[in-house]
Amino acid sequence: MTSDTIRTTGPRDDVAELVATIEAGGFWRLAPKWVPRGGYTPPNHDVLMAALAGLRRKL
Fold first, then answer.
1. What pLDDT tens digit does each residue of the chain (59 aa) get?
2. How far apart are CA 15 and CA 57, in angstroms?
């Protein structure tokens, strides 16, 4: 790997790139066709707290 190919972007750039990919619909090409493309619950505070509680139960 040469100095020309070393990635110099930071975590913020990675997040921005991921958000741009998802907003452009690029995420779905990574998922199998059988994965539903809509109908998900918006991630509000209650939903996130329920998810957190579930993850803590798994520990």
1. 454 555 555 556 777 887 787 777 777 677 777 877 777 778 889 989 999 999 999 98
2. 28
Domain membership of residue 49 as a residue range = 11-58
Q: State the total domains in the chain.
A: 1
How far apart are the C-alpha atoms of 5 and 43, rounded to whole Å? 37
**Cα–Cα–Cα angle for 23, 25, 26, nearest 5°?**
105
Q: What is the 3-state secondary structure (H, E, C) of 1-58?
A: CCCCCCCCCCHHHHHHHHHHHHHCCHHHHHCCCCCCCCCCCCCCHHHHHHHHHHHHHH
Tell whether pTM > 0.90.
no
